[in-house]
């Protein structure tokens, strides 16, 4: 049987790769499925494959992420984790990341990654 805690742990590790620790790009590639797609909160960014996401992250400074909330659910071999996080470059804004996972042969792989930015206007 699949375990939600294991999936949430994987999702937290995937989020942590945005800080670009050693070997982050290989670990990111190993955590996604062959049809992976990422949609950024930035409407000007086209949907990305894992190669395009790695290129974007490699061109920018790493940014450690603070996770403020995580929720998930499982149904058979399909799992979804919603992570709310912040990072310094976005000021007070939060980003909610929804990732859809498929368990293939006992391993969870991220198939879809959607970001939504909650902009908090200055008072």
What is this structure, in a nutshell?
This protein is an alpha+beta fold. Helix content is 24%, strand content 41%.
Task: Tell me what the structure shows.
The protein is an alpha+beta fold and 123 residues long. It is 24% helix and 41% strand. The protein has three helices and five strands. The protein has helices at 4-16, 24-30, 50-59; strands spanning 32-39, 66-75, 78-86, 94-104, 107-118. A hairpin with a 7-residue loop joins β3 and β4. The longest helix has 13 residues, at 4-16. This is DUF4440 domain-containing protein.
Structure keywords:
41% strand, alpha+beta, five-stranded mixed beta sheet, 123 residues
Structural class: alpha+beta
Radius of gyration: 14 Å
Q: Please tally the β strands and state the result.
A: 5
Unreliable stretches covering 5 or more consecutive residues: none
> Please, what is the average pLDDT?
89
Strand content: 35-45%
Name the overall outline: globular
Distance between the termini: 49 Å
Can you list the strand order of the major beta sheet?
Answer: 1-5-4-3-2
State the major sheet.
5 strands, mixed
Give the assembly state of these chains. Answer: single chain
Topology order in helix (H) and strand (E) letters: HHEHEEEE
Helix segment tally: 3
How would the blueprint of this fold be written?
Layout: H1 4-16, H2 24-30, E1 32-39, H3 50-59, E2 66-75, E3 78-86, E4 94-104, E5 107-118
Parallel strand pairs: 1-5
Antiparallel strand pairs: 2-3, 3-4, 4-5
